[in-house]
Design brief:
The protein is α/β, with parallel strands linked by helices and 724 residues long. The chain has 25 helices and 21 strands. A seven-stranded parallel sheet has the order 11-12-10-13-14-9-15, sandwiched between helices. Strand 5 and strand 6 form a beta hairpin. The radius of gyration is 29 Å and the shape is globular. The chain starts with 7 loop residues before the first helix and ends with a helix. The C terminus is likely disordered.
Length: 724
């Protein structure tokens, strides 16, 4: 019999097993049995070809509608173009080079599964040399058609595949495996299975691959989703329980001190949200256990001010605080902004400093040797109560006297190891405040940050201006782009400043397209756009560029000039996405906006309208009306509600990525669970996990469940969740 630990070489043979390992990282029977279908097609029912994305690897069920053979222009030979459709009116072109013989089998009217990468050529989507499996009309009655047998039923599983291992090969491998597969003992406690109406694990694993009916498939998916949600929630509940019991150092609020003086000198009132969140954080810091809190808030909601007040509370209690920023531009911006906010309170020891204050120090990789030695000395002897820096803070030789609070800004920009390295610089685990301006849907917060307490700042401070956003469809209405340049000139004449954002730096970044693989033009680049603006579109304006590959001192000089009003237009990449605060900037033009994600666009436009004048964000695109990319931009333009946009963003991405696959380089373990659609199930799993851990903290009475959790949420992923 075959178990989950059986190597695939013993089940499928060496050649097939090697292909699955090389292309899909599937090594054991368990890996393959948990490689679930992406979707299910039905013979004769169409797949929506309109939803396909350029550069996406897809498998579609479609019918051959026509074909033509044409000579190639650039070289000898011919090209076969096969038009396939799904019955909805949408079509896709399959191209084959010097393979005219395929015309004999790709006959008009034949249905098949076609797999390949979607490209675009002259406005038409196509598959270049796709792999395909044709479905004969009487396949369900033809026992000899072994390759097609899998697709004879009503529900056709379509698997996540690779070019060398298409979906029908995977289906055949799964069929072979299921003939001898012995499912494991069910790890789910019987009382939970009964209460939640969950089918057994063996039934679920068989029905997910070879569903006997739609209701059976639903029950199988429901059970396997439960396993995923329950494993993650058990891990998070365990982590939170351990964190709550871990020893830390209490940093209570002082009756008189820096925080009291700071609050008294504020030129404006805190918003209600800032006061409420401040009280939550103050209470956490006063406990003898490390705070683990996530602070999320819209762009410009005042998160930095909240973090400064928390840092001052820790300094008042005799500790130090470190603010970790993802880029030098943002770290320098934070340093200057906090210096201005603290005033004399941050200049203790200087002629105009408050003798009862503290010192603020900046630590970045570009510091000169003498400046670095001076900064590190202040960090080591405790003179610097607040330390702002980039990943340079993590290096050996950066030692704190008493690190009491770590504030991580834009946490998604840091890897797990980087965040943990800073925490390790404290004698006892420090308090941790994680900040993000990327709004997080409730289910993502519950699933990824479930071991953190969560605070939300939704109010914008008084005086912030609204931001209007508009899509500029360059192909349909080229005059709109001309008008955008005029609008930028008008804003500059009115005394304001502008950003022009490009998705690429330039300098040969783009990988050239493969032979005979038509592709979209490369994304617009800063180095290419800058001379066009200086010589043509924005001639006469003071323009400079900013991108991540510039030397730190050059970046700093440009940002200082822009902030001082010595520049009219900044042409930049997403290096300005977070933290850049120039209140005089009122207009932003994002070129090739469809090349950015929803959250990125929301972050970027938050750079304008930060003063008293209203802001406008213009989203340039060549995406056609009705395409997914265009709909995404229309959604961004229609609302400034970051939480609504975060749900749209979640729909656009592989949801499993939120568990850190992009950081760990491993497969995501959320294969079926939808963080957007399965909110009720996740809440139920959270409740069951809390009850079970409360009764059995280490799952010692549930060894099979503990092993199942370890398999679904491996140690690296568990550490990611813990450090989130």
């Amino acid at each position: 019999m075959t178990t989950t630990d059986t190597p695939l070489t013993k089940v499928l043979g060496a050649k097939t097993a090697k292909a699955l390992e090389d292309h899909l990282e599937l090594r054991t029977a368990g890996d393959l049995i948990y490689h679930f279908p992406r979707r299910y097609d039905q013979r004769g029912e169409h797949t929506d070809l309109r939803s396909l994305q350029v550069d996406e690897q897809v498998t579609v069920l479609a019918q051959v509608q026509g074909m033509s053979v044409k000579p190639m222009r650039q070289r000898r030979g011919n090209m076969l173009e096969v038009t396939i459709g799904d019955g909805s009116g949408a079509t896709l072109t399959c191209t084959f080079f010097n393979q005219a013989w395929r015309e004999r089998e790709l006959r008009k009217g034949v249905w098949g599964l076609f797999a390949g990468k979607v490209t675009e050529f002259r406005g038409k989507r196509q598959l270049n040399g796709p792999a395909y499996q044709l479905l004969s009309a009487d396949a369900s009655k033809d026992d000899a058609a072994a390759e097609i047998e899998e697709f004879a039923g009503a529900l056709i599983p379509v698997y996540p595949a690779a070019q060398a291992v298409p979906t029908w090969v995977i289906a055949k491998c799964v069929r072979t495996l299921l003939d001898t597969f012995e499912p494991p003992d069910d790890p789910m406690p019987a009382e939970i299975r009964a209460t939640r109406n969950l089918v057994g694990i063996g039934t679920a694993l068989r029905e997910i691959h070879r569903p006997s009916s739609e209701p059976s498939l639903y029950s199988a998916k429901h059970r396997l989703k439960w396993d995923e949600a329950f494993a993650v929630q058990l891990t998070l509940v365990q982590r939170r329980a351990k964190a709550a019991a871990a020893p830390g150092t209490a940093r209570p609020r002082a009756d008189a001190g820096l925080l009291v003086k700071f609050d008294a000198g504020l030129p404006y009132e805190l918003t209600e949200g800032q006061r409420d969140v401040g009280e939550e954080i103050a209470a956490d810091l006063a406990r003898p256990h490390p705070m683990h809190r996530l602070l999320q808030g819209e762009v410009g909601s005042g998160k930095t001010l909240v973090s400064v007040r928390a840092m001052l509370q820790v300094v008042d209690a005799g500790g130090q605080a470190a603010l970790l920023a993802p880029t030098e531009v943002l770290a320098t911006q934070h340093f200057r902004g906090i210096s201005a906010q603290l005033g004399a309170l941050g200049r203790a020891g200087e002629l105009d400093g408050d003798p009862e204050g503290t010192q603020l120090t900046l630590v970045t990789g570009s510091l000169g040797a003498a400046a670095r030695r001076a900064a590190l000395a202040k960090v080591a002897d405790g003179t610097a109560g607040i330390v702002v820096g980039t990943h340079a803070l993590l290096y050996e030789g950066v030692d704190f006297k008493d690190l009491g609070l770590v504030v991580v800004d834009e946490q998604h920009r840091f890897g797990v190891e980087q965040r943990d390295a800073l925490r390790a610089k404290a004698a006892k685990p420090p308090h941790v405040l994680v900040m993000t301006a990327t709004p997080i849907p409730r289910t993502v917060a519950m699933t990824v940050y479930g071991d953190l307490e969560t605070s939300v700042l939704s109010q914008l401070p008084r005086g912030r201006s609204p931001i209007a956003s508009h899509v500029i469809p360059a192909l349909e209405k080229p005059a709109y782009l001309d008008r955008a340049w005029v609008r930028i000139k008008e804003e500059v004449r009115a005394g304001h400043q502008a950003y022009v954002v490009c998705p690429r730096i330039g300098e040969d970044e783009e990988t050239p397209p493969k032979d005979d693989e038509p592709s979209r033009r490369p994304p617009l680049a800063v180095t290419e756009v800058l001379p066009l603006l200086r010589d043509e579109y924005l001639k006469g304006l003071r323009i400079a560029m900013l991108h991540g590959k510039m030397p730190p001192d050059e970046k700093d000089t440009v940002m200082r000039s822009f902030a001082a009003g010595d520049l009219d237009v900044l042409v930049a990449t997403t290096v300005i996405e977070v933290g850049v605060d120039v209140p005089n900037s009122t207009v932003m033009l994002i070129l090739d906006a469809d090349r950015f994600g929803v959250s990125q666009l929301h972050q970027l436009r938050g750079r304008v309208g930060r003063g008293s004048a209203p802001g406008v964000c213009l989203l340039h695109t060549e995406a056609v009306e009705g395409s997914a990319a265009r709909e995404r931009l229309d959604a961004v333009a229609s609302t400034t509600d970051g939480f609504k946009l975060s749900e749209i963003d979640l729909e656009q991405r592989r949801e499993g990525d939120v568990l850190g696959a992009s950081q760990s380089g491993k497969h995501s373990h959320l294969r079926l669970l939808s963080l957007l659609r399965d909110e009720k199930l996740i809440k139920e799993a959270r409740a069951e996990a809390s009850a079970l851990i409360g009764d059995d903290p280490d799952l010692t009475r549930h060894p099979a469940l503990a092993a199942s959790v370890a398999a679904l949420v491996d140690e690296d992923r568990a550490e990611y969740l813990e450090k989130g």
